[in-house]
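User: Could you walk me through two proteins back to back? I'd like the raw sequence and the structure tokens for each, with a short line separating them so I can tell where one ends and the next begins.

Assistant: Of course. Protein one, sequence then structure:
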Amino acid sequence: MNDLELLVQSATEAFVAAATPADLENAKARFLGKSGSLTELLKGMGALSVEDKKTRGAAINQAKQQVEAALTARRQALADDELALQLRAESLDVSLPGRRRGEGGLHPVSLTLERMEAIFGSMGFAVADGPEIETDWFNFTALNTPEDHPARSMHDTFYVEGGNLLRTHTSPMQVRYAVQHVKQHAEAVGRGERIPEIRVIAPGRTYRVDSDATHSPMFHQCEGLWIGEAVSFTDLKAVFADFFRNFFETDDLDIRFRPSFFPFTEPSAEVDIAFASGPLKGRWLEVGGSGQVHPNVVRNFGLDPEKYIGFAFGLGPDRLTMLRYGVNDLRLFYEGDLRFLSQFQ
């Protein structure tokens, strides 16, 4: 074995013995550095003849390539060892179930609102949406509510700067929708022609100064309006019967109307339902209010009350949600407790 073969073997053994990248760089310097063994051999080429330079130079270059190949192989081996250590330290048990983010879902009241819109939509009712900060005109005056009515008291209504207020019901949308409807058919109204019926519901948030197990300062209402030339209480009862039986998915319930008073309807009636089975069997539960739209309100729509007649109603989606899911405390819907809300996903 000549001197170059011994040098390659020595370099290979030194590289293999290097346990860390730093040790490997030190070993490299012994053979390939500025004062390394191979470098010194190349420096001694100057004293050789031209023929010997060719032969010796080729042999030294071949030895250098072998040393560099051994160096590269050891570098890769050290890198592979380091990666293997890292993978073992950060190993994952792929047999375990993954950690997933919990999936969200609609709030139970939102589910109720969607259900109400779908049911009334199947009966030809449009859905209207409007501002939650209202003017006195739309919230009270246009709905035939006198200035001395208790609802106008600061103990019941949230007032804001500029004389406006947080709407106490979604009935203002009945006025807004009807006025817009009349404007769209103004020419027909002027000619005394028949205009399309107004059939709309207005679900949304409302606000009153009230808070207990069955009341919240912020709550939801769904107001409805049906105005035409021959709309009667018979239609109102049919609408409610269809709605409640579809909403609660049962035909085993009764509906009754109790005489009441609302400024914007005359005559007026509270609406109660009673289930024929279940934990609430035989118990009458108030679920809404209704009545024939007052002539003053019809005039504020821009219509002639001698020609147009109809009914309005108001339902409480929060109350309906409580009944549908068997919840006895309204505050649970708004406390943000995921243990409670996740039951409805």
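----
Protein two, same layout:
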Amino acid sequence: MTLGIAGMLMLFACRTNPEMLSAPVTGYNHTSAAINRFTVNDAGGPNLGPHQGGGKQSCCGVVPRTWVPGLRAVVVWEKDPEPYSYGKWIERPYSDAWTKRMEEHKQQYSRHKVVVDIPKYDTAGTLKVHFLPCNQVRVSVDNVKPGDPRYPYNYPMNMPEPKVCPD
């Protein structure tokens, strides 16, 4: 679906159902991998370097004005486990050899999809997606910022990563 069509659908949803709101999308990457791209309920979010997030927002997802039990989010993302490796390559950037090596590097990318519950919120706000070690994800839609004691996911940006993830 193109961005223009997605935007029109979101506008249509907001017009036909006043209980839905458009919400900016932002992400928080608590891992040493790069999040090359992600979506939450088909709304795209910004790319995230290791241990980064919260600064960039993309527009827009659609969220209910009022939280409802069973509210969930589908998060899809692509992860680069070695985001800084190309800085050590001896090939001249963007040369044929460098491009070939980059194509080989991209084979290490992994793609993931999860469905997660969205915790109760009083006031709808930004769609915030947290990427945690072991491909765990949390999403909030509240109007509370990370760091606030009321925020449900106050994780450190640099979380320890286990050598082996539990299944």
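The chain has one domain: 3-142.

Let me know if you want the two compared in more detail.
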